[in-house]
Amino acid sequence: MKAGINTRYGGPDVVEVRSAPKPEPKENELLVKVHATTVNRTDCGMRTPYPFFIRAFIGLRSPKLNILGLDFAGEVESVGSKVSTFKPGDRVFGLSPDTCGAHAEYLCAPEDGPIASMPAGASFEEGAPIEGAWYASLILKAFGLKPGHKILIYGATGAIGTAAVQLAKSYGSTVTAVCAGRHVGLVESIGADRVIDYEAQDFTAIGETFDYVLDAVGKSSYFSCRRLLKPSGVFSATDLGPWGQVALLSIWSSIVRSGRVIFPLPRASKEFIEFLRARIEAGLYRAVIDRRYALDEIVEAYRYVETGQKVGNVVIKVTSSD
């Protein structure tokens, strides 16, 4: 099979598209023919790697995982002897958080893992971008978001931000989103009640407070945003922040039981995939797609993602059909 392979750490050019052995499913696994996947911030961080300490988990001198790619959509090619809920030909989408491998024509996924039938009416390219919605959902769930809550989402145009806006609205919350002025129309179109152009206004000085503040792009901090919080308000971010301050403040908040800062650990589950499928089928969530690349163009996709200018998701078309 063809795959994007990186055997060393470094920039986008360390990824080479070449042949790799086709995986064989275990008795409890599906072999999925991947039709679409994404290149995202997580892939870039694992390839670089960033932050440096993640080498302790993904390989000190060279990467343990040579084929990246967290999310996928495709078709079941074959199943292991003990698989009962899927069959060849089924259209599926899901996450591969432990072994990655979606930047390839085939991957294996456990039947009881974060994988489910494709949402009705969705194309593979529409179903593949899951990573951003996963991170957004983890934080919103940890917030305990409910109808009537007010949330501010900074960085509302990335994969996580566009997902957070839509999912927060699906919970019945009032959403104030922060983005560059040229993207205001897009963010309004996905459901934000109010959009602030950070290029024209300091969003931290708007004189309003919120139940929750989410930095969906990792470019702010709790100390910059705390005046936006109600007395019982909670801050979270999708990045560790300078010197890992978000994680450290989360630990401290837990110790003193203030709950002011949270940083939930990523855990993928079948329940999340089913949750996302229901939101898609109900018209409450759609992946925002910026650009599409062929698998052979994955290095260019990495370069574009690392400009920091992408809006929503960058999709890799692994096969030409949908």
Largest sheet: 7 strands, mixed
CATH class of the largest domain: Alpha Beta
* 3D shape: globular
**Low-confidence segments, ≥5 residues, pLDDT <50?**
none
How many strand units? 15
Q: Percent helix among the residues? A: 25-40%
What Rg is obtained from the alpha carbons, in whole angstroms?
19 Å
What's the helix-strand series? EEEHHEEEEHHEHEHEEHEHEHEHE
Q: What portion of residues belong to β-strands?
A: 25-35%
Structural class: alpha/beta
Please tell me the overall pLDDT. 94
CA(first)-CA(last) distance: 19 Å
Number of separate domains: 2
CATH architecture of the largest domain: Alpha-Beta Complex
The CATH homology group name of the largest domain: Medium-chain alcohol dehydrogenases, catalytic domain
Number of helices: 10
**CATH topology label of the largest domain:** Quinone Oxidoreductase, Chain A, domain 1
Give an account of the 3D structure.
This protein is α/β, with parallel strands linked by helices. The protein is built from 10 helices and 15 strands. Strands 3, 4, 5, 6, 7, 14 and 15 form a 7-stranded mixed beta sheet that branches. Strands 10-9-8-11-12-13 form a 6-stranded parallel beta sheet. The longest helix is centred in the middle third of the chain and has 13 residues, at 131-143.
